[in-house]
From TrEMBL:
Keyword vocabulary terms for this entry: Cell membrane, Membrane, Transmembrane, Transmembrane helix
Membrane-protein topology: Multi-pass membrane protein
PANTHER family per record: SLL0384 PROTEIN (PTHR34857:SF2)
CDD domains in alphabetical order: EcfT
Name of the featured protein: Energy-coupling factor transporter transmembrane component T family protein
Compartments, as annotated in UniProt: Membrane
Keyword Manganese in annotation: no
Gene source species: Brevibacterium otitidis
Length: 258
């Protein structure tokens, strides 16, 4: 039976358990239950992607920036703010300043892309604060069918591994001098093949490894597995739900006034 790092620290050092609990209480407002994160993602997607939902995009933008600030993700916060500013200018300011056909087409594309970036900003909180194990436990606690729980758990484990494999392939190509615009322009098909073939082979191998690991963990079995971390809804979840509701209500009020 293995112990977590917090349990080992609590056993080996007197008084460490109280310090760990104090740190957990101090940081708990930043972390929401995975079920709350999924609800925020679904609500944001339905709100901003629905026909006529562009007036709710500012609420999603502010929610995404607040979540990044709460997660202390300074780099993501800066990149998201820059992306929102650029897409907002291209989508709404440029067509008014330069009313041409090209600016209108560019504005429509930028406004549509802004909605996807808004959903992505809210979804980043789930990837920063949750693990595949906690997401699986939360979905199981919410009585989500296994037909949805298993694919979500596999995707959450699959994407980071594939991203690391892609980075390894790019680094290997860079070491062999196979990257760069010159090589791509000279031999485009060969350059694409040198990248895609190792990535596909790595993806197939990763899929087999994840399948074997899932079978060993009992994922998909008819028995209800136990979870080391019991998901619980608390006041941080209520806090972020209230924040999202207030932002959406503010957009409705501004729309009514305008």
């Amino acid at each position: 039976m293995s112990l977590s790092s917090e349990s080992i620290a609590a056993v080996s050092v007197p008084g460490s358990e109280s310090r760990v609990q104090a740190v957990t209480r101090r940081e708990s407002w930043r972390v929401t239950d995975p079920r709350t994160s999924i609800v925020l993602i679904l609500a944001t997607s339905l709100a901003v992607m629905a026909p006529g939902g562009e007036f709710l995009v500012p609420a999603g933008i502010v929610l995404g920036l607040l979540l990044a600030f709460a997660d202390r993700a300074k780099r993501h916060l800066t990149l998201l703010a820059f992306a929102f500013a650029v897409l907002g200018c291209l989508g709404y300011v440029l067509p008014m300043l330069v009313p041409t056909g090209f600016s209108v087409i560019l504005g429509v594309a930028a406004a549509f892309l802004l909605r996807f970036v808004t959903v992505y900003a809210v979804a980043l909180h789930l990837f920063r604060t949750a693990t595949p194990g906690t997401v699986t436990a939360a979905l199981r606690a919410a009585r989500v069918p296994r037909g949805l729980t298993v694919p979500i758990a596999v995707v959450l484990r699959f994407i980071p591994v594939v991203a690391s494999e892609v980075t390894a392939v790019v680094d290997s190509m860079r070491l062999h001098g196979l990257t760069g615009w010159r090589a791509l322009l000279r031999h485009p098909v060969l350059s694409i093949g040198r990248f895609t073939v190792p990535v596909i082979a790595s993806t197939l191998r990763v899929g087999d490894d994840l399948t074997a690991a899932a079978l060993l963990r009992g994922l998909g079995s008819y028995q209800r597995p136990t979870s080391r971390i019991v998901p619980r809804l608390g006041w941080p979840d209520l806090l972020w739900i209230v924040i999202a509701a207030v932002l959406a209500a503010g957009c409705f009020i501004l729309r009514g006034l305008s």
